[in-house]
Each structure stands twice: as C-alpha cells, then as structure tokens.
Specification:
This protein is mostly beta strands. The chain is built from no helices and ten strands. The two termini are 15 Å apart. Bound molecules: calcium ion (CA).
C-alpha cells in the first residue's frame, strides 16, 4: 500500500513578466497542514475538494480517499485546523465503502 502525501498547487500566479495572460502558471506544490499535521497524509489516494462545510463564508478542505472515507479540515483564523472525520448524525464516520 502506498500512502501519498497531499500536495496541492496554489492558485494561478498572475502573468507579470511579459508572459501571455492566457498562459496558465502555477506556484510549486506545497504540503498543506492542519494543526501542524499533513492533511490527508495517511490517506490512500486523497482527493481534496473545497467546500464551506460549516457555512462561515470560508472554504474548508474536504478529503475523500480510495476506500471511501471522508474527512475535513476547517479553515480557521490561524489557517487550516485539525483533520477530523466527517460524521453522520449518529456520530459514525461517513464512509462510502468504495470496495
Ligand atoms: Ca467554512
């Protein structure tokens, strides 16, 4: 089993050096952390998505993985917070059981 660290590219960089404005340019990938721990670091094929889970107006990070488990990290005032399970109303972790 291979564990892949979660690496995400940052937003498009503006073309300020004479490059065509149609040319997409990205900053180097960066490891995202929540509470000083890598987000998705123990997941197999982490699949991130941005969504405002708690409806506070700031995008949070939702992470799925190959087996179908869903976790999320809230964007707080100090950055991304601890990754936590996405729970159903009965308190159990949301799991799509992809296998
Ligand atoms: Ca939010």
């Amino acid at each position: 089993m291979t564990l892949l660290p979660l690496l995400l590219a940052s937003a498009l960089a503006p073309a300020g050096d004479g490059a065509s404005s149609l040319e997409a340019r990205f900053a180097p990938p960066a490891l995202m952390t929540g509470a000083d721990k890598p987000l998705g670091g123990t997941k197999m094929y982490p699949s991130p998505a941005a969504h405002d889970v708690d409806r506070d107006g700031k995008l949070d990070l939702v992470l799925g993985d190959l087996p179908g488990r869903i976790t999320w990290s809230r964007r707080g005032t100090e950055g991304m917070e601890r990754e936590q399970p996405f729970e159903k109303t009965d308190g159990t972790q949301l799991n799509f059981s992809n296998w």
